[in-house]
Amino acid sequence: MKQKEALAFVERHGIVLQAARGSLPNLAETIAGGAIRGSWWGHPKGKEIFHAVKTIGASPNVLVCKLAEGKITYVHRRLWPALIKLASRFRKELAAERTSRNKNLFQTGYHLKL
How far apart are CA 7 and CA 40, in angstroms? Predict the structure, then answer.
């Protein structure tokens, strides 16, 4: 999966898990072409997964947070308004963290007070 394809995957699905198993789409397993046994770091496509993770993490259009069951979750920009509206329903330990990469979300007028 090329870097643009990884970003398109997140945009298409809206909310994506980095590598955890769950009811949401999983980036690592999509790149690997199936279930990953153990850590994705040791998978033959581990480098490809790593580059996709870095690309998504650097995108101003994706919020990286621990949202779905406390697992690393990617939320595309188009869902940020809905995320903000639902923020009061999240447990504090699952709150999106303010990182320098995520400042754009907060500078646009949206504020997560969880």
Answer: 19
